[in-house]
């Protein structure tokens, strides 16, 4: 009789211990999941800022380079695709192509000195660079939160219970090293070839001035 009571007591303690562990594990996973969701929301906020800015940027370039229709259409297409997905993996794939296309857009802008000197365009460019930096910061924070969450549900014995509680591994928002570089085009200085042209013009003016002086003599 006493042995039965002892066994029942041990089983009861084991059940209570298991329930306590499940309770603690569940609460811990919920907290980590909330952090992951909040981190993804941070990325979403910065992406929306970029979505709002891109049309204005395109219109600025379009005013000087209307014939670059393919680039403008590609930017619009990638913007739409990016806005239409909530999958970190799909978004990461689009990001690489999107940044490459934006770099091409800025490369086109380099061919138009008046555009490069346009205050509105420069303001939009600076805003985009700031947003890109914020996106990269939000991406790192999100991936850190996902790492902690995934580790928690994959380690033993949590991996035996997490699935039954409805928790699944979350996707990282990963990009290549090249894609991590911000979209940046520096228009603050003249290109070497432009400096040479300016220098030639100055030399030409000096020669003409000296020639006029000689004629007056």
Per-chain topology:
Blueprint: H1 2-62, H2 69-83, H3 88-109, H4 113-116, H5 119-154, H6 158-162, H7 177-180, H8 192-216
Helix pairs in contact: 1-2, 1-5, 2-3
Comma- or semicolon-separated keywords:
217 residues, mainly alpha, de novo design (two linked rop proteins), 79% helix, rod-shaped
Description:
- The protein has 8 helices and no strands.
- The protein is mainly α.
- The termini are far apart.
- 79% of the residues lie in helices and 0% in strands.
- The chain has helices at residues 2-62, 69-83, 88-109, 113-116, 119-154, 158-162, 177-180, 192-216.
- The chain has a single domain, classed as Up-down Bundle (de novo design (two linked rop proteins)).
What is the structure about, briefly put?
The chain has 217 residues and is mostly helical. The chain contains 8 helices and no strands.
Radius of gyration: 30 Å
CATH C-level label: Mainly Alpha
Tell me roughly what share of residues is in helical segments: over 70%
Class based on secondary structure composition and strand pairing? mainly alpha
CATH topology: de novo design (two linked rop proteins)
What do we call the CATH homologous superfamily? LemA-like domain
Principal-axis shape equals rod-shaped
Give the helices and strands as they follow along the chain: HHHHHHHH
pLDDT < 50 runs, ≥5 residues: 185-195
The profile of the biggest β sheet is:
none
Write down how many β-strands occur, each being a DSSP E stretch of 2 or more residues: 0
**Count of runs of 4 or more consecutive helical residues:** 8
Mean pLDDT over the residues: 81
Beta content comes to: under 5%
For the terminal residues, how far apart are their CA atoms? 133 Å
CATH architecture: Up-down Bundle
**Overall tally of domains:** 1
């Amino acid at each position: 009789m006493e042995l039965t009571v002892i066994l029942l007591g041990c089983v009861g303690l084991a059940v209570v211990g298991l329930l306590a562990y499940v309770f603690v594990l569940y609460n811990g996973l919920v907290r980590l999941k909330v952090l992951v969701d909040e981190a993804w929301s941070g990325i979403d906020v910065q992406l929306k800022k970029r979505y709002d800015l891109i049309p204005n940027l395109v219109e600025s370039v379009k005013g000087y380079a209307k014939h670059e229709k393919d680039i403008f259409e590609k930017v619009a297409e990638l913007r739409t695709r990016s806005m239409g997905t909530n999958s970190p993996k799909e978004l990461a794939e689009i990001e690489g192509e999107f940044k490459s296309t934006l770099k091409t857009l800025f490369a086109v802008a380099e061919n138009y000195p008046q555009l490069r000197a346009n205050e509105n365009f420069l303001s939009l460019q600076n805003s985009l660079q700031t947003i890109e930096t914020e996106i990269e910061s939000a991406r790192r924070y999100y991936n850190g939160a996902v790492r902690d969450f995934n580790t928690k549900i994959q380690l033993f014995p949590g991996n035996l219970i997490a699935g039954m509680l409805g928790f699944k591994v979350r996707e990282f928002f990963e990009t290549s090293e090249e894609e991590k570089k911000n979209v940046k085009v520096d228009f603050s200085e003249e290109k070497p070839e432009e400096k040479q042209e300016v220098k030639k013009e100055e030399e030409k003016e000096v020669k003409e001035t000296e020639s006029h002086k000689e004629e007056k003599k």
